[in-house]
Specification:
alpha+beta, 4-stranded antiparallel sheet, two-stranded antiparallel sheet, globular
């Protein structure tokens, strides 16, 4: 199956790039059903947390991450968002979260906690 990215996505912006190969490797090791050949696009718009459209050969995913640089204490917290999403496990609620990365490396590549 070939999945097409949503129209409201584009190439990953320079300031929000990360090591896609590392994410592909991590997903292969930790995401049940991941079929490889990671494709990454960034959703347009949004002012706080970069959001990415990811796809393997068969499924689509969303990746949210903290923006680069210092965050204001009042900033939207993606870790809190993940914890709240885990409370809702019904088909009518937000998608199931695969994982949450507690830390990032200096290259902004994900590292599981």
């Amino acid at each position: 199956m070939s999945l097409s990215p949503p129209q409201n996505t584009g190439p990953v912006r320079e300031a929000h790039r990360f090591e896609e190969a590392r994410l592909d490797t991590w997903m292969a090791e930790h995401v049940d059903g991941y079929s490889g050949a990671l494709h990454v696009r960034q959703f347009k718009g949004g002012q706080s947390n970069p959001t990415y459209w990811l796809a393997d050969r068969d499924r689509q995913y969303a990746l949210r991450k903290k923006p680069p640089g210092e965050l204001l204490q009042s900033a939207h917290a993606v870790d809190r968002e993940y914890r709240v999403m885990q409370l809702f496990e019904t088909p009518m609620c937000p998608p199931r979260g695969c994982t949450r990365f507690a830390k990032t490396t200096p290259s902004s590549a994900p590292r599981s906690s």
